[in-house]
Amino acid sequence: MTNSELAVFKLHARNLEKIYDPFLLRKMEDRARALFTFGIIADIQYADIDDGSNYRRTRRRFYRNSVELLRNAMRDWEERRVSCVLQLGDVIDGHNKSRDASEQALETVVKELEKCSVDVHHVWGNHEFYNFRRETLLASPLNSAAKAEAGSDLLADDIYAYEFSPAPSFRFVLLDAYDMSVIGRDESSERHKQSLKLLQQHNSNPDLNQPPVYGLEQRFVKFNGGFSPEQLQWLDEVLTLADQKQEKVTVFSHLPVHPDSTDPICLAWNYEELLSVLRSHKSVVCFMAGHDHDGGYCTDTTGVHHITLEGVIETRPDSNAFGTVYVYEDRMLLKGSGRTADRVLKYP
Ligand SMILES: [Zn+2]
């Protein structure tokens, strides 16, 4: 064999290796065997305004381009034939409010989402409440509870939380992390008064969006919220039933609830109470949230995965931030795009 023949042979062998990479093949087969797949995206925060930055001026925000990144995600999900999509909150930015552009911005994003051939389930974040009253949201396209197999009993109390089964033996639960909050609740309401009292017990700053100085106490800010006793009890009942049916449950919320999965400034006020409900049910396998644009991940002592998805709004136009989750009997495979990392999520 001449030197040039040898070079051609080596190149061919390398290509064969690439084509027949056993790991790649296994991954492709695995995807074909997934029971179902779903898309996840968080903090799109669309506004038709020029780029800006976050409050601390440490991160750039791409308000106008965020809808382009949503389009990228939708194209990808169509190709991957997902069964449904979970939008984890803050779909349009609070800046729209002062510009009197809330309805228009929502229309732009909803128009995109409606191109999706599958159901999109919406979680609500703080920016939803900067733009709209709770009653308005309940009557808007952002109320996706009707897509659940049965409506939530909580909706009667204006708590936006519901559950449904995306496939046999699996259950999705969407939580309302601003059920206890000082945004989105009328100042005259009992819940607003209770929430303000709790917030002021922990935060003495004149501006309640300014966090207290220390550790986990930093979560007591106006842009966070929590879960009422009614919602915690409802979640406990839903999970008890799921335990009995031996289902695998993934819970979705705008606010993260595990201190190791987020900056403490983004944690839900009563995260401990919610964690304790999750920990007492063997059906729970995963908790997914948004709100902290840097993203995060940890495994709880119980083996439950806590994923905080990177925010679209702080993602460069030449990158992406979304995920496609392939669900199997024994694990989920998160296929991340752009800033979102791939993860294997084995069930506890
Ligand atoms: Zn948020």
Structure description:
The protein is α/β, with parallel strands linked by helices and 348 residues long. It has two domains: 1-33; 37-346, Purple Acid Phosphatase, chain A, domain 2 (4-Layer Sandwich). It contains ten helices and 14 strands. A six-stranded mixed β-sheet has the order 5-4-1-12-13-14, covered by helices on one side. The longest helix is centred in the first third of the chain and has 17 residues, at 3-19. It starts with a helix and ends with a strand. Residues 13-20 have low confidence and may be disordered. Bound molecules: zinc ion. Residues 90, 125-127, 254, 291 line the site of zinc ion. The site of zinc ion has 6 residues, from helix 6. It comes from Anabarilius grahami (Kanglang fish). Pfam families: Metallophos. Its cofactor is Mg(2+).
